[in-house]
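Service request form, structural biology core

Requester: graduate student, group of Dr. S.
Request type: structure prediction, single chain
Budget code: on file
Notes: please return the result as structure tokens.

Sequence provided:
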Amino acid sequence: MRDTDPRVVLGLHRSRHERLLLTEALDLGVTALDTSANYLDFRSHEVLAQMAGDLLSKFTLSTKVGYFPGPGKTEHSLDPVRLYTAVEQAARVLGRQPDVVFLHNPERSLQETTPQNQDLLAQACAALERATTNGLCGTWGIASWYPPPLLSLIDTTIPRPSVFMVRAGLLVGVATIDAAEALTTAWDLSSGMVWGMSPFGGSTQAPVWGKIDPRVFIRDGTGLSRLQAAFRAAYRLPQVSAVAVGTNDSAHLNELVGTLDSAVDEPAIRQYRSLLRTQPNGQLV
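Core staff response, request fulfilled:
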């Protein structure tokens, strides 16, 4: 079995926001770009518009709201007025309507504000739904680094996102995988509307990538590097159709694009998932 049109999304979390990278991404067929209001010290939207405003129409563009600059630190907020205003500002500064605006890591505030969590989440989602209705973005979604806290809050009173982004890959624990797939079902999302992120856990230089060989998860993976195989396996941990990955190196991006024709070894992935459940912390690596 193979993913339905597996895609690569160029993420700008740690990017230097250079125009050349965007033009090279387009040359490689990478036409999805993901950023956030808080990236590049809250300057990502401004810098993108200045250095590549003419290119942005060639990308499916997603961004995120939820983090705000505060006195001496970054704040997280689910205040619906702040969120709606942030979407307005994103569209204005970018010079175009984002295709997707994600509610960024809602669990960050929800973990700190019991017992009104469900009302807070409902109001935050309603603000993004209203922004979509009012033409400030194409659609809205939720991006969650650790989704288990969301599970108990989802019911028919919560507006349903159209896109879901969640951490994916071999470094993700079983609690995140299970929660992500349960939320995907609860929101009745099609396979094309679930994205993964951070497939290398934030660094391709981490010692773990020299200790394990992810090629065991790829059918005939002998032609791939370990990192390429880890990236391809991320589409199954959890099940996603696109993976957002950050890089400043077009050669690295090219290597990742080159994995999309490789087939995942489904029995190996199932066995790995089963092994995760035997571990005290739900993780193997």
